User: What shape does this take?
Amino acid sequence: MSAPFIHIPQSSPVSGRARDFLDDFNRVAADPELGASLEQLQESFRTMNLTTGPADTLNEKDLVTKLINDNQALWNQLLQNNFCQNYMKTKPKTDVPTLNGFKWYMRQDFLYIVHQCQYEADRGLKATNATDFGTSMDKVVKRANYGKEILKTCTDAPPTGLGIADSVVLATTATTALKDYIALLIAAANEQNWVMSLVATVPCIQSYYLIAVDLHNNSAHQDTPWFKLWVEENIKYESSTTKQKQFFIDNYDQWKDHYATANDIFKKAVQAEINLWGTALNPGS
Assistant: This one.
């Protein structure tokens, strides 16, 4: 069996949502009936030369960079969101509001996985053939494992976890921001073709790495739980961002006539990421 196109982080603290998104890319990359083949993607990645700089120097097939450039102001709001810039970057580990906000953010990530397990299980029950049923069950299994790992991160004692009681994590309620994000992803999956639905995952994968780099280089304190569990983990996965870009370059023919749709999905997904970070400013109990 060939190695997946994008490496899926195995570390428990890594966002279950981010890993779920990367699984979607690997599933499509491995499907010979959907766009560029896995072999083509792997070869392109080995020889790629992504250009960064003024828009007129960019590869016209680089959808990810084009979307970011065309929505730079909104994109900057995500990278410079209030919680990351004013709390995670500046506060010491003794700062209770920041710790509680980070805990709440991780609890929402756990709840995302739980909701998506339920959604995919329901899809499996409605399947009309073995292939679709199998796909849904495979997703349920992977998401369930991610859920167990995020729960472990939330409940393990520091420094490997956040020390939250399991009963508290399991009683977490979904914020409006999380519900809206899930609704966006489900709508993209149900209403768009496979390449457009993947556009909704771009802001998460790209921004996590960039935010982590910023916090790693500029945080006032590097001994905080959020630095150890979020920053140090997400800074490891630059290849995920470049491979995601390469995926859309190699599937240019699949999206080139649908840029307006891609742009609309991207903007909504960026706002969804901003809103989700915003929940950490007013954490629940």
In short: The longest helix spans residues 96-125.
